[in-house]
Amino acid sequence: MQVLIHGLCPHSPFNYLLKSLFFVLWGHRPSENGSPKGIPGNDDSGAMSSWLVFHMMGLYPNAGQNYYLINSPILKESIIKLENNQSFKIIAKNLSRKNTFIKAASLNNKPFTHTWLTHNELVNGGVLVLEMSDKAGDWGKNVVPPTQE
Description:
The protein is an alpha+beta fold. Helix content is 17%, strand content 26%. It is built from 3 helices and 8 strands, in the order ααβββββββαβ. The strands form 2 sheets. Strands 3-4-8-5-6 form a 5-stranded mixed sheet. The chain has a 3-stranded antiparallel sheet with strand order 1-2-7. β1 (59-61) and β2 (67-70) form a beta hairpin.
């Protein structure tokens, strides 16, 4: 018998963009924990776990594309260690249970209006700061990710 658990399925249409916030903040919490039964169902050889880690940092790996969609993180600070002793840090300022909306963003101390981060921007290292708020604002409303041709 197979069971579909939306909290473990990154390809689920419910997880894309706005709906992803629901699953990132609430979808994984009831079932995932540190026990042997902490990840019910098939973990897909680490694919689901890596997807969850990306989401917790505030990134959505967009399969087949060279960018990550930016969404609301649930971790206040994340560091991705890169080659050559570089790192990419994601800081969620004012993140709380109430402050789950991205109000503004900056990349390497410069305003960042895109709702996505390219793979090159990530692997070059730096700091992405997401300013969190309790209300949805205008950040990212008028900027859409590129499409693949």
